[in-house]
Predict the structure.
Amino acid sequence: MLRPLFQALFAASAVVLTGCAGLPAAEMSLPASIAAERAESVQGLGAGRNGSFSLSAETGTFSRGLDRVDLFSVVNWSSASTRYSLVLADGSRTEAACSGKAVEVTWKVIAANAKPFSFECEWRGSRSAQLKMNAPVVSMTMKAERSGQFSMGGTTLEVESVHEVRGSSLPLEAPIGYVFRHDGKVVGAIELNGLTPRLWRPASGTALREPVTMAALALALLWDPSA
């Protein structure tokens, strides 16, 4: 199952939480430090395997996929791949190559992660960077949590999945988005609910704008192999 699985899950959650399909879809719960900031829409991602996108002055192209191998309905190997090329606001270009994987073992009604979710990206071109994300080896909750780091030059961002929905005490299992922290302070977020992700990022011209943008696009394009 591809990106539509996420959309179906989020849509169903929104209906349960609001009690009416005609009301707005569920929105990610944002930290107070950025909740009042204006979000930017990532146009063009949709649910396709290939395409082009735009984000204010930045534009790009992408390709992505998700493969699953099911062995006797007991062992399930999943792997995801993503590539995108981004033309930054100053006209320079960087390209990302990402891969994600997970292995799940199911016995009767019990499912366990034999190899928890992992996701890695590398950027080449005018900007060089790395992103590494993992699920916890042991989780005490039902949430499919992910966390990791994005590194570019001397800048490091802490990345963490968000499962809380605004106005509800009921968290979602799959991430509805991610937040980005620098030196412990939230500096950005990406909401993945629906066909058009929404991005909160630092102001144009600031040092953290490009790192947040690059990491957020990689996560927005991911077809999560654990979903």
